[in-house]
Write a structure and sequence with these properties.
Shape: elongated
Oligomer: single chain
Radius of gyration: 22 Å
Largest sheet: none
Length: 146
């Protein structure tokens, strides 16, 4: 098995899967930000509760930005940063550790399986001769004589 990439471009199917993971993760992070604000406000930490909310919303927005940047070579690295920051958010809301581990497992699974699916799709396209012009095998079948 290849090592799990930390940077660089991924295949079309892989970056779509990773963007989907980040989209779902952003929703969970935004809800976690609301929990952090509520718990902090209940404990009497007025200024901290607003800071938790803003930082959580910032991390949720970073998830959305990272999802949109998955096509870029540095998008994968940004996604790893989001995974790390999600795990770090467990310092404020301990249950975010469960959320972070869940999405980290999804992230790694999508990287591994997505690469396998992209390789298989490339192999099938090469075997089918996709992209060959009229001189190729498909060109002869498409011609109409007469």
């Amino acid at each position: 098995m290849r090592s799990i990439p930390l940077h660089g471009q991924t295949g079309k199917f892989t970056f779509r899967m990773l963007a989907t993971v980040l989209g779902g993760q952003s929703i969970c992070i935004l809800l976690g930000a609301l929990v952090a604000r509520g718990v902090s406000a209940a404990d009497g930490g007025g200024g901290r509760s607003t800071a938790y909310l803003l930082v959580g919303f910032g991390l949720g927005a970073l998830c959305v930005v990272a999802a949109g940047m998955m096509r870029r070579p540095w998008g994968l690295t940004l996604g790893w940063v989001v995974q790390a920051l999600t795990l770090v958010s467990a310092v404020i809301v301990p249950m975010m550790l469960v959320v972070g581990l869940f999405f980290l497992a999804l992230w790694v699974t999508c990287l591994v399986k997505g690469a396998q699916i992209d390789a298989e799709m490339a192999r099938r396209e090469a075997a089918a001769g996709v992209g060959e012009g009229p001189s190729g095998a498909e060109g002869a079948a498409d011609r109409v004589d007469g």
